[in-house]
Amino acid sequence: MLFFTQCFGAVLDLIHLRFQHYKAKRVFSAAGQLVCVVNPTHSLKYAPTRCAAAQASTEQGILPPCHHHEAVHDPQLVPCTCPLFSCPWEGHLEVVVSHLRQTHRINILQGAEIVFLATDMHLPAPTDWIIMHSCLGHQFLLVLRKQEKYEGHPQFFATMMLIGTPTQADNFTYRLELNRNQRRLKWEATPRSILECVDSVISDGDCLVLNTSLAQLFSDNGSLAIGIAITTSKVHSSEAEM
Amino acid sequence: MLFFTQCFGAVLDLIHLRFQHYKAKRVFSAAGQLVCVVNPTHSLKYAPTRCAAAQASTEQGILPPCHHHEAVHDPQLVPCTCPLFSCPWEGHLEVVVSHLRQTHRINILQGAEIVFLATDMHLPAPTDWIIMHSCLGHQFLLVLRKQEKYEGHPQFFATMMLIGTPTQADNFTYRLELNRNQRRLKWEATPRSILECVDSVISDGDCLVLNTSLAQLFSDNGSLAIGIAITTSKVHSSEAEM
Hints:
The structure is a homodimer. Chain A contains 6 helices and 15 strands. Chain A is of the alpha+beta class. Chain A starts with a helix and ends in a 10-residue tail after the last strand. Chains A, B: This is E3 ubiquitin-protein ligase.
């Protein structure tokens, strides 16, 4: 009996996912963009992690192992930078993608412009929505995180990391765009390298930040669509060092 | 002696302002944009105001006098909507601009695209930076506010209001753009009518919202440059009612 109940639950989940995917496809098909429905993962870490330990060691004047490739005991090895879990894995930069796919089941999408459709935005913090994006010969990790920086006031943070070195990351610009209800919000920046901690990028606030009220304005039925585009870096024509 | 000290202080202030203006002009001259240096005004209200009273009366089922033109006792009269002061003035919509200029000393700028350079971003909340912008045959009010929505965590809120009716406001789109340090943040929306409370727009979070850390990333020596552009409304091509 329990087996049948579980099977029925699984079928219902599949139908729900299928419905969300078709709805998103219908919306974005006109724009010819690839839509990826991304389900949330309730973050299992937030216990003292490798990054937290790294930050503590930075305060003591020691280089953090997850901030700089050079600081990992074997310079050929990179610790697992998946922001979801405190994972003991470490390996060469070239195999990070396959580790993230196989161990953490993170999907990878191809295309110059994609739409990231994060579902169930109402879930309590901390929650992460994660996907990999393959573009211009490189792989990028998009992280959307719901987190309470100020207790009782959850915010959404979105950033893009290159699965590569900081020098390689400097060659790209990523754009995240929200567009709904006659409102549009765009964030453009150079991606950070995955060798840096996603936690510190988010705690520095150097990413797209949304209050709950803005996230609600841009979301529909609890799903938030983020348009993503990656280009090779060009000097921002109107930018000036003020 | 006191007189000379005061004169010297005034001269120093003038030199400082002049320096800021020339610096901003130098930065933006390449883009051919008009720069306006806007000094902060420490908000004198936040006592129970007309808007607060209006919100209280809304809770009691009475239409707020500052939310809808129709609800003002004389439909030809508009209360003063200057967000700085709890001002008892009311008058016709056509004379709001001259009231704001003459009584509240708010500058007015002309031009399709202007740069709003808010100085002294470090000042404690609540602080407002306000200017009027004349464009496409109408006048708009730009309000940048530093406010502590969550105690101890000041945020910056920027919005644009049309000095006109909500129906007129629907014909325009405004854009606020921050651009510095290889980061760019753009907010586009339909302006609200000045007949609505700027306080409620900000408390709803339906505007450009910046955390202190993001504001610091975009500011230079305590000044934040916001590029402003107003256009007549067009349907956002890629927008979809998701």
